[in-house]
């Protein structure tokens, strides 16, 4: 026969509180991509803008682009924490190919050469060491090559 004790319930409350405190309520990073123009000649270029939330874009050496004081960060996952510093890779149509570009700039000029027609530019966040952040943080923008 099992009896409920105040100490058992207290243990459950403490465990739950510790979990909430350890996980925090900081939202996961997000990324969004926009292009202008979204229709351009094959071999032509478009202006790509990448915006992030709860993530800081930085070069491989850890220099931040926020205008704040530069400092180094590892940008790798430690103890289950979400990576919050790094850069992005831009892919054409599939994440299974080599990226067209890697950058930490909020806005870049991108030249695209592929078959004429509809395509998708995919942006994915990476840590400073180029590891893919899990779960993957991506966004897509439709383009048309003429």
Describe the fold and architecture:
It is built from one helix and nine strands. The chain is mainly beta and 146 residues long. About 21% of the residues have low confidence.
The CATH architecture category equals Sandwich
Uncertain runs are 7-22, 66-79
Structural class: mainly beta
Q: Can you tell me the CATH topology?
A: Immunoglobulin-like
Order of helices and strands, N to C? HEEEEEEEEE
| Mean pLDDT metric | 80
Total discrete domains? 1
General form:
elongated
Work out the number of β strands: 9
Residue share in helices? 10-25%
Terminal Cα separation, in Å?
Answer: 76 Å
Fourth CATH level, the homologous superfamily: Immunoglobulins
How do the strands and helices of this protein lay out in sequence?
Layout: H1 6-23, E1 30-36, E2 39-40, E3 45-53, E4 56-57, E5 85-92, E6 101-103, E7 107-111, E8 117-127, E9 138-145
In short:
The chain is mainly beta and 146 residues long.
């Amino acid at each position: 026969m099992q009896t409920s004790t105040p100490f058992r319930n207290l243990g459950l409350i403490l465990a739950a509180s510790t979990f909430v405190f350890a996980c925090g309520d900081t939202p996961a990073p997000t990324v969004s991509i926009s292009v202008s123009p979204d229709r351009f000649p094959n071999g032509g270029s478009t202006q790509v803008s990448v915006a992030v939330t709860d993530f800081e874009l930085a070069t491989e050496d850890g220099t931040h682009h926020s205008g704040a004081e530069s400092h180094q960060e590892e940008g790798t996952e430690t103890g289950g924490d979400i990576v919050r510093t790094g850069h992005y890779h831009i892919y054409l149509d599939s994440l299974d190919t080599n990226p067209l570009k890697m950058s930490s700039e909020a806005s870049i000029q991108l030249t695209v050469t592929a078959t004429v027609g509809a395509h998708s530019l995919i942006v994915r966040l990476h840590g400073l060491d180029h590891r893919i952040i899990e779960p993957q943080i991506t966004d897509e923008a439709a383009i048309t090559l003429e």
